[in-house]
Amino acid sequence: ELGKHETYMEKEIFEQPEAIRNALRGRVVIEEGMVKFGGLNMTEEEIRRISRIVITACGTSWHAALIGKYLIERFGEIPVEVDYASEFRYRNPILKEGDLVIVISQSGETADTLEALREAKRKGVRVLGLTNVVGSTIARESDGGIYLHAGPEIGVASTKAFTNQVVSLILFAIYLGRLKNMSLYEGQRLLKELSLVPEKIQQILEQQDTIKKIAEKYHEAKNFLYLGRGVNYPVALEGALKLKEISYIHAEGYPAAEMKHGPIALIDEFMPVVFIAPRDALYEKVVSNIHEVKARHGKVIAILSDKDDHVLRYVDDALYIPQTMEEFSPLLTVVPLQMMAYHIARIKGLDVDKPRNLAKSVTVE
Ligand code: M6R
């Protein structure tokens, strides 16, 4: 079942282009610049009346939710709040008519997320579930749903489910936008670019040897910092979580601009800092953070857009991603981070598919 791969995690990282194609299949109508979903169970009129969205989830799915906030506010023009499911269910979340709660869960069985769903329903709010496992409890108890179509994910560290969560949120955000102010042309432009993403991920997977060398160089570090901005801030969190989970190296993710408010004190020659710095609106600002780290002798590993040689002489190691739209860049930037965490853990001889103390689905509080 593993085919040419040695572990499920590696197999699942490499399945991402195909998983995304499966999530897009049958849902994208290019001529109309529109997206079709089978199971939302809401009329277009009800969708247009949504005045606020609250997304709730745990772990990696919560990182996808943070990206979803950015996408839905940008394309769908609806305000979004994101909450950890465990926090949501024990607060008094103020929910009103016109609110939609979205729960995101690969397994569809996470106890905290399931209880958050039940709490929202108790308050009379409609719940949309984004799950991977067909017929899971969250899928069954949601009022409507979007299946991730990532295929079975066996490795405890979530990879292809994450990218398909982001794809589903992109599709949903475009769908919301098209029911409101987004033009036909803009819908078409976004969907065409989205259909090119699987091929671009393939190009990143082909950089496996470069990523292995970087893993060799840094696998003895005791701490890592991951920094990104905008839609790539949650990717920094996700990169850090992957490293913690499977390599047991302490890592933290931050919005790059927050570095100067504290974490900068940690930087010395032993601290690798991973910068997610594709060419986007905030690129120059991230570059100035790179200079700040180098001035303190930190080691910089940068995820850059193709052909970016502007900062090359300031960084210690670089990984390249193909150009895409800023909003879709997490689908690309996360891949080298998954691979780097993977190879560091393998070099350390660890069981990446079953890391210590972790279960694939957390069905206890
Ligand atoms: O099945 P879920 O998406 O609800 O799981 C949520 C988290 O437990 C999960 O994402 C966890 O953080 C993963 N091990 C991350 O790799």
Distance between the first and last residues' Cα = 33 Å
Named once each, the bound ligands are: 5-amino-5-deoxy-1-O-phosphono-D-mannitol
Described by strand count, sense and barrel closure, the largest sheet is: 5 strands, parallel
Q: What share of residues are in beta strands?
A: 15-25%
**SSE run:** HHEEHEHEHEHEHEHHHHEHEEHEEH
Function: Catalyzes the first step in hexosamine metabolism, converting fructose-6P into glucosamine-6P using glutamine as a nitrogen source.
Organism: Thermospira aquatica
Active site: 360 (for fru-6p isomerization activity)
Subcellular location: Cytoplasm
Describe the overall structure.
This protein is an alpha/beta fold. It has 14 helices and twelve strands. The chain has a five-stranded parallel beta sheet, sandwiched between helices. The protein is globular, with a radius of gyration of 20 Å. The mean pLDDT is 96. 5-amino-5-deoxy-1-O-phosphono-D-mannitol binds next to helix 4.
